[in-house]
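Run: sequence + beta-D-glucopyranose -> complex structure.
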Amino acid sequence: MKETELKKLLDSMTLEEKLCQMTQCEPLKADEEKSLGVNPDIKTKGLTEKQYYSVGSMIVYVPKAADLRRVQKEHLKRDPHKIPLLFMSDVLHGKETVFPIPLAMGCSFNTELLKECYEVSAEECAASGVHTVFAPAIDLSRDARWGRSMESFGEDPCLSSRMAGAAVTGFQGNGDTIDENHVSCCAKHYLGYGAVTGGRDYNCAEISDNELYNYYLPSFKAAVENNVSMIMTSFNTLNGVPMTVNEHANRQILRGDLGFDGVLISDYNSLGECENHGISSSSEKLAELGIKATLDIEMMNTLILNNGEKSVKGGAVDEEYIDSAVLRILRLKNKLGLFEDPFKGLSEEKEESFFNNLKSREKSREIAEQSAVLLKNSGVLPLKSFEKIWLCGPLSVSEEVGGEWAFSMQKPYNVSLFEGISNIIGKENIILSKTDKIYRIEDIDSKEKEDIPYPESADEFENCKTCIIAVGEHMGDTGEASSKTNIRLTKNQAELVKKVKQSGKKTVVIVFSGRPLDISDIEPYSDALIYAWYLGCESGNALARLIFGLSNPSGKLAMSLPRCVGQCPIYYNHLNTGRPYNKTNRFSCGYTDCENEPLFSFGFGLSYTEFRYEDISVNKNEIKIKVKNTGDFDGFETIQLYVSLKDTSVSQPVKALKDFKKIFLKSGEEKEITFKINKDMFSFYKNKVKTLEKCSAVLFLRAQSGEFIKISDFEVCL
Ligand code: BGC
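>> structure
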């Protein structure tokens, strides 16, 4: 449709019909539809039958092509203007093919591969009739207590921004319109959600302008620059004002400064929750505030629908606001080509071809292998000979290692570690201890058993030199509403690792989790340590390939692992302070009972091979580095460029990642890589304005050991 036709359509709509476009509910099942008007289901939030068939969009948790075809058909029969519905779904790390959790994929530092994974998700969604995914989640996340850390790309604005851009392009494609193999996507949760006080989900966030502009906004800016179609407001207040009614953040910053002209959607009833925030107990007032804050769609409530008309007629809201919102929604439907074909992309046959699709699973395995982080390796890994392996730990046979926020996948389910290892060395070579299973946090005390499982036969025990121990937290204790004050492994798990080590075996510890856990209990007893996060449907296969050296670890931490929960929030790119931490000086910025540094910091991750950086040259336009794989294994290396600024009018982070490149080098191979130097690397926001000052900079690379290598001083000129 042409823009003029869209405007004509808008002009032909009644105010109520426009408000319906701004409303999102859940579709009713075929038999539930019959009860409409008599006993409307909670899902429809009391919509009348007429309203139900005129809403603009629906949220679907487990989308199926046949269902969405039926719902769309019924809708089109009755919608007065035959405006197609938009179907939206949470597809954060895969629909049918489950990919690693986003925090893990952040550790891959592989933007191209991430994009390809989301292309797979987009195709799967489109075939099932989904038009918009509620992803990517690009909240900057520094606090391991926050369960939703798993949804993010971690603690660094540069990495999060690059990942955000790649994710948006993967879902939507590159064009001005969205084709039948892509979907529109919704970056969330705007803004500051990752900074909720105490890491407690839904809590308030108090963020200075300095932090907001330099750390929390960049990923949203990147999403907008990559033409993201939709943005979701967050549940939290930002400096006292709930984001869903935050006119300053939404109208001025998002739409004004960042230039976002797509659809702004609330989170699940987040407009209604403004009453609890204490903003107003009047639905009419909340609707008015939402509309003025440029909210276009209200998810799972009807405050705008039921009060918008009063607000307009009473003069509190200009109908222009409603028109702009509806036009943005119609434009999105148009961008998806739904006016021409409301069933665009939807295909039952294609949908079926994506069930357990081997090519897509391969992609999932590929990124899983690059997302796991090898944190420690005292010469144990890779296991070279296929000798007998002792496998134990509560996550060794579990299939629940795909990660939260993947609701649609059909069986066969995720590959467990046991299955993955069996696929390489055969079941007969695994001595599997019958270990207690992993429990949800509320069940640990009552259900976790005390006994530490040893192999039943003494001979078997004698015969194996290495024990692989799979520990972690329950997948269900991560994600939304999963904040924790205790981020350690359970006592039994820590005890298990310690006892196995004391039995004289080499310990290879695999940690599954959706957040950086405090693993200081087990680190000393681990000969090798792989931080696996949750790696999606190919989890076990990917890990087994890493363990046996069929693949070489290359993941780097996207979030630092604290030494203890008391260090949270902890992040590498902090300011220096007037009394920088000094172990030997009590009157420096630190703790009396714990070091300042995390156990493992952002950007750290080992490999089976070694990379040497040589012939580094820096001029005012570029940095050239020769990277050589000097070890015995082929592998990926992520070259990370950091900047530290001095002599600035505002304190700057001790180090800040400014660029990175991931390359593959065969053993003995070398490549020259180039980083372009640009002003952005030395700019920062000061009083909300991007500023470049004459100052001195130091450029660093990150060595494999985790050390920063200074490569050059650099004078920043205006
Ligand atoms: C979450 C969002 C999600 C929405 C719809 C909310 O509870 O915060 O991230 O997209 O539900 O499922």
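>> summary
The chain has a mean pLDDT of 94. Residues 59, 90, 134, 188, 267-268, 480 surround beta-D-glucopyranose (CB under 6 Å).
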